[in-house]
Structures are given as structure tokens and as C-alpha cells.
Amino acid sequence: MSGGVDIVCVGAHPDDVEIGMGGTVAAMVAEGLAVAIVDLTDGEPTPAGTHETRLAEASEAARILGITERRTLTLPNRALFDTPEARKELAEVFRELRPATVFAPYPLDAHPDHVAAAAIADGARFWAKFTKTDMRGEPHYPARLYRYMAVHLRLVREPSFVVDVSAHLPAKLEALAAYRSQFAANPANSGLVETMADVARSWGRAIGVEAGEPFFADEPVGIASIAQLV
């Protein structure tokens, strides 16, 4: 795809977006929104993965969620930093795809790549609007940025809002299971898919539904209609 989308979801690695907001991605696609996922790295090396395996797994997960636009940037796994080069690479994607909304990782995490991805998304959002620049594309500033939680810390934070993903929890779990090299083939992570199901059900109980996913906003969240609230 080349052209505009409504939403861009940024992850440090393939599977980050699925862990933090896979149900919401499926829900947005079902609503007719054009959604893209941008993985800043290929996530390799890992104990059971390869570059080719991760790309294939990410493609399968995208298919399950209904995503037709997924990109893997050239930034290095395990050495991801908020640099001018990283900001530029992601900002050029924003200038090309021109999303109204960006979802990015929660900025507090034990995993340095996740912390860096949060900062890169912030910086790229700002850089994307530059006029005097050698970046490709026309200036564009995504109007909204929200954060999803896929962290390596046992954090409990008060979210800005929780999305009802009850109808899309099966798709989220199926998309996560597509990452066989990371979960089924890795004993250390073999229980993660079921853990994510439990987490989603816990957030669902908080808003009176079967399953939910929490999000965090740096600015006030406006709503168009009170009738849309769960």
C-alpha cells in the first residue's frame, strides 16, 4: 500500500503491537479503519527465531488481524536508540501514510528497546511536520498519539481509556500464537498467550465486558458522543 491510512501502530519488535493492542487492531479493522503496523526492528536474534521466520510470523499475524499494511524498518534489535536516523526513518513513514492517530509503546519498561521505541515515536511524530528537510514526503503531523502497554514490568497503571475487545479476543490470541518461534518454541515464554488472555479478561471486568485493552494519553481525550461509551 502507498497512501493514507487512519492509524499507525508502532512496535519495537514484531509481536509488541499484538501483545498490547491486538484486539483493538482487529476491532478498528472491523470498523472499516485503515490500520498499518510498523515494527522498528525485526526482533532478532532470539533463541528460536531467524529474520525470515519473524517476517513470516509477522505477516501471518497481520493477516489474522486483517492488516494489509505492515512494515519492518531497518533499525537494530537490542541496540535501538532514539537517534536522528531512527526518527527520520519513522517520520518518513508518517509522511507517506499520513495517519490521524499513532499508537506507540508505553514509555516506562524494563526492556530498553521499548523505552527507545516510545521516544522514537514521539520524536518522529514531531519531525514528520518539518518543512525544510531532506526527508521524503510532504509534512504531516498525526493529531493524536496514544500508548499501549506491552511491558516487561509488573505495572498496574490507571489507563486513560479501555477499549472493549470482547468480540476480537480470539483474533488477538490467534495472532499471538502465530509467533511460534517466540512462544510455542520457547519454554520461557510458552505461557504468554494464555497470560494475555487473562490480562484482557481482567481489563474487561474493569469496564463490565468480557475483554479489554488499556490505553494511555498524554493529553485530554475528547469524545464525539456520550452514547459511544461502554
What do you see in this structure?
This protein has 230 residues and is α/β, with parallel strands linked by helices. It has a single domain (7-219), classed as LmbE-like (Rossmann fold). It is built from 6 helices and 7 strands, in the order βαβαβαβαββααβ. It has a 7-stranded mixed β-sheet with strand order 3-2-1-4-5-7-6, with helices on both faces. The longest helix has 16 residues, at 112-127. The model has no long low-confidence stretch (mean pLDDT 96).
What's the short story on this structure?
Helix content is 37%, strand content 15%.
Which key phrases capture this entry?
230 residues, alpha/beta, Rossmann fold, seven-stranded mixed beta sheet, globular
Q: What is the CA–CA distance across the termini?
A: 33 Å
State the major sheet. 7 strands, mixed
**Architecture (CATH level 2) name:** 3-Layer(aba) Sandwich
Oligomer: single chain
Q: Strand portion, in percent?
A: 5-15%
Category by helix and strand content: alpha/beta
How much helical structure, as a percent, in the residues?
25-40%
Element-level helix/strand string: EHEHEHEHEEHHE
Give the overall pLDDT as a whole number.
96
